[in-house]
């Protein structure tokens, strides 16, 4: 048994070149000019940050053990940090817990119950819980002197996990094909394209990829939630002709029946999951049979719930494939996804974004490794990473959202 002695959070905002990363995970579209750090997308009605934003969590146990976690926070990391400090700390700080999967599960349920009756069973609340949950797993793995993936399975976890390339940057089709060629040389065969311009533009890019690499290339498409049912049907049938591996997030996430109808109208499987934080949110979509690829985001559901989701799918929906989603992320999120994938043999690959991976590694004492197109699963105890705490503290902040000069 041990107790959580303290919980500390770190709100991170790092400047980045928005133009350079357009077409890739976390900031796929061009952004409108504006006075604030958060800008409207040029393609559809949502906000993106001009910065790389993250929320890190540090747990220190009475034994002296430390665990690091991370909540998915591409916007407003201060919110997940504040929830952790004001709502989750009273729930678990000083609370005795067993250093095991069962012990983590009990604390996760304690945090989930804290605001359930007030309707906080999704969104920022679950993001904050995910960050603490990942930190608890890191702590438990360190206590056991074993990597987290060993604790998630009774079998031998994989030493490496295949990656797929998420997004192709560049202003022109030629530039994007050139980037794909470089990745192909490293062994990548699966490419995800973002619908950041028009459907016709994306279809032309997808056809160019197919022409360049032939049937061996697997082409997935992320529609970023901004199609309507009629447009999604036409777009999905165009993807059928490629064919495409999946159509991700085609419609607004709350539109259950529209997703069900779309899945019946096209051959390309739908990929969903990153917008949902629990089995409770996902089950209606799974029961209606509209998910072909399930994409839990570890920074939104945490390791405990991600494993529960995967077990639920394996038992009740075995036709569904599980691939963890990684968007804007630092070391704890990426490492958690790798341990999750390594422990579950049915997980075929993990998302990879070069610019995100590079930023994450800047804050690790020893970088995570990608060899060819395979992530190497960390084998040190816990998540297997060592946070450069001095580097984190140097950039951590808690500002009020500020106005900036127009771009």
Describe the structure.
The protein is of the alpha/beta class. Helix content is 41%, strand content 18%. The protein is built from 14 helices and 16 strands. It has helices at residues 18-21, 77-92, 101-114, 123-144, 148-152, 173-185, 199-213, 229-240, 256-265, 279-287, 298-316, 331-343, 354-361, 389-395; strands at 2-15, 38-40, 47-49, 51-61, 66-71, 96-97, 160-166, 190-194, 218-222, 247-248, 270-272, 293-294, 321-322, 350-352, 370-371, 374-376. Strands 7, 8, 9, 10, 11, 12, 13, 14, 15 and 16 form a ten-stranded mixed sheet that branches. Strands 5-4-1-6 form a four-stranded antiparallel sheet. A two-stranded antiparallel sheet has the order 2-3. α2 (77-92) packs across α3, α4 (123-144) crosses α11 and α6 (173-185) packs across α7 (199-213). The longest helix has 22 residues, at 123-144.
Give start-end ranges of low-pLDDT stretches.
399-403
User: What's the mean pLDDT score?
Assistant: 92
Oligomer type? single chain
End-to-end span in angstroms?
Answer: 53 Å
Number of strands: 16
Task: Give the helix proportion (percent range).
Answer: 40-55%
Task: Give the class from helix and strand content and strand pairing.
Answer: alpha/beta
Helices, by number, come to 14
Question: The biggest beta sheet, please?
Answer: 10 strands, mixed
Give the amount of beta strand, in percent.
15-25%
What is the global morphology? globular
Q: What would you report as the Rg, rounded to the nearest angstrom?
A: 20 Å
Order of helices and strands: EHEEEEHEHHHEHEHEHEHEHEHEHEHEEH
């Amino acid at each position: 048994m041990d107790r959580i002695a303290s919980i500390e959070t770190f709100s991170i905002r790092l400047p980045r070149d928005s133009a350079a990363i357009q077409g890739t995970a976390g900031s796929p579209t061009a952004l409108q000019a504006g006075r604030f750090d958060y800008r409207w997308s040029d393609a559809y009605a949502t906000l993106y940050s001009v910065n790389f934003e993250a929320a890190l969590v540090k747990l220190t146990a009475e034994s002296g053990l430390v665990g690091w976690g991370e909540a998915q926070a591409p916007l407003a990391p201060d919110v997940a940090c504040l929830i952790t400090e004001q709502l989750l700390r009273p729930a678990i700080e000083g609370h005795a817990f067993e250093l095991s999967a069962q012990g983590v599960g009990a604390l996760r349920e304690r945090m989930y119950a804290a605001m359930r009756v007030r309707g906080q069973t999704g969104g920022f609340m679950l993001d904050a819980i995910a960050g603490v949950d990942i930190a608890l797993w890191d702590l438990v793995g360190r206590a056991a002197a074993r990597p987290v993936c060993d604790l998630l399975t009774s079998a031998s976890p994989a030493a490496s996990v295949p990656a797929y390339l998420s997004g192709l940057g560049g202003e022109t089709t030629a530039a994007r094909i050139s980037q794909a060629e470089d990745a192909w040389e490293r062994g990548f065969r699966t490419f995800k394209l973002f619908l950041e311009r028009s459907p016709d533009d994306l279809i032309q890019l997808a056809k160019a990829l197919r022409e360049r690499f032939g049937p061996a290339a697997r082409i997935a498409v992320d529609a970023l939630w901004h199609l309507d049912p009629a447009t999604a049907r036409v777009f999905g049938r165009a993807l059928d002709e490629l064919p495409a591996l999946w159509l991700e997030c085609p419609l607004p996430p709350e539109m259950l029946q529209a997703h069900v109808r779309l899945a019946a109208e096209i051959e390309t499987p739908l990929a969903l999951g990153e917008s949902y934080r629990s089995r409770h949110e996902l089950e209606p979509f799974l029961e209606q049979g509209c998910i072909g690829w399930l994409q839990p985001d570890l920074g939104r559901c945490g390791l405990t719930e991600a494993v529960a989701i995967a077990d639920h799918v394996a038992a009740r929906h075995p036709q569904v494939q599980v691939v963890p989603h990684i968007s804007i992320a630092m070391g704890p999120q990426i490492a958690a996804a790798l341990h999750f994938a390594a422990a579950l043999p049915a997980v075929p690959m993990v998302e990879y974004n070069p610019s995100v991976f590079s930023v994450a590694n800047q804050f690790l004492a020893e970088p995570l490794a990608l060899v060819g197109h395979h992530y190497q699963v960390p084998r040190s105890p816990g998540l297997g990473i060592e946070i450069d705490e001095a580097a984190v503290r140097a950039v951590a902040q808690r500002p009020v959202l500020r106005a900036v000069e127009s771009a």
